[in-house]
Amino acid sequence: MKKQRANDSGWRGSPEVWFQAAIEILLESGVDAVKISTLAKRLNISRTSFYWFFADREELLSALVDAWKDKNTGSIITQSEAYADSLAEATLNVFDCWLDDTLFDSRFEFAIRSWSLQSREIQSEVKQADAIRLESLSRMFSRFGFSDLQADVHARTIYLVQIGYISMQTKESLADRMIRIPDYVKTFTGEYPKQNELERFYYRHGYKNNASS
Q: For residue 116, how many other CB atoms are within 10 A of its CB?
């Protein structure tokens, strides 16, 4: 990404403006729609201005992949390594990703995985991300005494269920999702979360559990 000159922010836009427009179009219409002419039309900026910030379309597409990895893969790693007193609490930390778009963007995930169906290069990126994410989840289970095989199987159970949610574009209300959370944790870990662990989780996501109040 080219460095923007201090006095050239006006009609050319900025790297962030072009990049944000690219993300929006990717999420709306897929990678084939992420074209310089389409971006310029959306932003009402000359298409030649694009080249002030990016060498070509491929550089922009590479930046999109990097952003996806930094956000979605990075957050799973961070959440799986977050402090927890129990495996149930550690799992709830990971569940934060599925409920907080600032940590993990499911639409971005779907768009990248759809893109991978037509690009071997992106397919390779997705496979690498899957492996990294599964390894981080396996390490989480290993911290709580699971064998390597057990940790791998539990990690796959959590991860593949969520990727299924994304691939099927499953829609649930927050209340429906939250009602299922304790039993998801039990299914994935073998233990229910403690009430205080659940309450902290509910609070983080703005959910009021009337049954426990």
A: 18
